[in-house]
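Here is a tokenized protein:
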Amino acid sequence: MKKVYYIIKPGVDRITPYALLVKSRNAVTKMTGNPDFANAVPKLTDVTTANDTLEAAIAAYGLNPGPRERSERQQAFDVVKGLYLDLCGFVQAASNGDLAIMQSA
């Protein structure tokens, strides 16, 4: 029986859109080509597409901080946050609490 079981804490409660983008891109980079996460759910390509959309929305809001740009940035942020949390759940399940496997993602 396993004595220590590690749990992932995503750390996205008070995160800014840019910080979430950095975290999400880092996770995709680490998981790409990693044999422990060959069939990641959600697909890493979907997460990358959502990251690209968020990055464009952040840039648009930076150029013109109007209500429409803020709304689009928030919508993209919500999508990436949901995908990132799903990815964290997948890593938790696939690693079975193994710290080394978690850290590789």
Observations:
- The mean pLDDT is 94.
